[in-house]
Amino acid sequence: MEFNLLKNDPQSNARAGLLHTAHGVIETPIFMPVGTVGSVKGVPQDQLKNAIQAQIILGNTYHLYLRPGTSVLEQAGGLHKFMNWDKPILTDSGGYQVFSLSANRKLREEGALFQSHIDGSKHLFSPENVMDIQRSIGADIIMAFDECTPYPCDYSYARQSMEMTHRWLLRCQDRFDATEGKYGYSQSLFPIVQGSVYKDLRVQSAEFIAKQGREGNAIGGLSVGEPAEMMYEMTELVTAILPVEKPRYLMGVGTPANILECIALGVDMFDCVMPTRNAATACCLPQKALSIFEMKSGRMI
Length: 301
Fold this sequence. Notes:
The chain is of the alpha/beta class.
């Protein structure tokens, strides 16, 4: 994977770039539609490619692991062929879904033990097998296994969680670097900055992640209910530390206003289920929000 910066905005930290992957080039900043279980709900593939002109979509490791399962995906030749999508794919690690299943999971150093929401069966996600699962899915960009802390959470929990996420990252890297892709093309691993809304933890985590020297970096745990201004403050803090020459991905964000603000802070990649969910329930943007979006970025409308 290669990232080329093309232009920087002189009045902010916004930048434009090209992210080269095995399945095509992505123009950044980019919003990635979420295709949880092998498709973006309610959107046919031809509309994704031609009308929406999506350059990359996101798949969900937790859901794809449970159904259809890695053996089915491997028989199909990976998720690209399974869903007839020839452009780039990013898969999350399942950490957020494990977080959302807090009543049905147990965290330990080994990994996360959880119950399937489908049939109640028990499963273990570890840093090692999450790398193996994402290798089988075949995404161009795969995410390190982390714990997504809730908001609010106390400082002690946030620190312990961040430290475990760092230890898990080292195990993810060992497994990822010791294995190869299954379908004849390269994959890239992105680590994830955590630390809740505590400045010193975010700085510590960003510095640790930057030192790993991976091909891109992600910022997690900032779409879990914290105030928007707090999200912006943590994002600005982290983007000042993460390498400028590598793409930055803010996970789970968000609304048009959130995206535009965080682009100005130096973020390159975004994802959120909001557009798909809003469309499924015939929901639309409030007129005030739509007016702000049109005013700030008519091109994106």
